[in-house]
Amino acid sequence: MNRKAKIVCAVVVVIALAAVATLGIIGNPRIFMNNRSLKAAVTALKPGQTVALAELTPFEWDALYLPTPYEPRESIESALGFSSDDIQANDISEGMEHLIFADDGKVAACVLGHADALGYRFDFGAVQSRLIHPGDDVHFTVTGENGVVTLTAVR
Prior knowledge:
Elements (H helix, E strand, L loop, with lengths): L2 H24 L2 H15 L6 E3 H4 L6 E3 L7 H8 L15 E8 L2 E9 H4 L1 E4 L7 E2 L6 E7 L2 E6 L2
Parallel strand pairs: 5-8
Antiparallel strand pairs: 1-7, 2-3, 2-6, 3-4, 7-8
């Protein structure tokens, strides 16, 4: 193998390793992009606005599940009706935001983090179900404090 071919092989290997490392850090690229899009949409809202959940989400979804703190992954999968390595269980803290958006039997977005780090929080207190669909017509009022946008369900 000549020197040029060795260099090309080395570059291909480095690019492949970088891609694998990046996927290991960000996980599923679809979920990563949808999470970023959701954050951008939510943090762009202004206090006093009212917004529908279906209008707020800039990606396709057919179910939103709101896991309870410390709910086992198996229970979440049962509620969603499918298994996936992309389903995360919140076994860390009761004070974390945890939302799992599903689309056609796959995770579309999975939010799991503290509101201060995310920049937003959802209060689904007025919603009776932990499984929500786009047609359920859930609306939120928007408030903001200390750099965190809060969406409070008004149904």
